Amino acid sequence: MVLEEMECDSVYEPHITEEHVESYYGKVHCIMMGTPKTNHPVILTFHDVGLNYKSCFETLFKHEDMREIIRHFPICHVEAPGQQEGAKTLHTGHTYPTMDQLSEVIPAVIKHFGLPRVIGVGVGAGAYILAKFALNHPDMVDGLVLININPSAEGLIDSVTSKITEWTHTLPDTLISHLFGKVEILNNHDLIATYRHLITTTMDEYNVSEFLHSYNHRHPLEVERPIPGGNINARTLKCSTLLVVGDNSPAVEAVVDCNSKLDPTKTTLLKMADCGGLPQADQPAKVIEAIKYFIQGLGYLSSASMTRLGSRTTSFSSIDGSRSRAHTNELQRGRTYSHSAEDKHRPSHTSTMEHTS
Length: 357
Known about the structure:
15 helices
């Protein structure tokens, strides 16, 4: 039976449609892979600034290990206005949507495609948008995978720094510094050259600058960690959430800060060891494994469908800044179905876990 599933998996090609979906805040370009099923969630993605669905997620979703997920879950990629490949320059006088407004585009997409519920996968600005959407529409969201999320507004020092950067750097330089850490920029010249080429040749510079401006003027998410015996009605994400960041990412501190503000019984924070600013592109197999365990924790993938995960050795560095080990999160529950994890080197709540077949 497992062999039959793998053979089917290798030839499965989902039906793909591209549409511009109208919303109150303008049209958004969407790519729908597969057919939505009644009472079954769809994976909905949203990209970061300077990227579109291809440059942000193609490496992840075209990876062979992702086939199993694609076979079980339709995928809906959402692109912010004017960010798709070959987009025309937005007309002068166009008011670009704020981050809050972009989060309200998602319900229009869900209604247009008739999606029952979603599991959101967002990166950077896209992670913020999906988190904001989940805060306002918790009944539409089963779970969130948030990569490089920054829950805070840009502070005064950050704002001044951004202004100076605008004066002294080109837009591609600014975006590269947003997407990648200093180590990558200094040492991985091929990677940086590839993304610089994608930014300058496949995207409209004015449109990207508008999206960046919107992101830099975001409001804080205003989430608060619920405290037993205290403010149990604190505003926070109600769904299970997996936070992901590379240990060399410029977003490390922001992601750890986000973890400190979310419900510890529903949140898992993974710091990917030896990983850069874009974990889904740098270490796609490990991110896919984490997503599979996360989805299984939501109750959608059986242990039988997890057999593929035993074929590889992977390692994560998992940070949990303030949660008690007594709290069992969805990712950890999923791990126990497939194979055991051995914790090593555990200074100050940081552990390295190696998964072996």
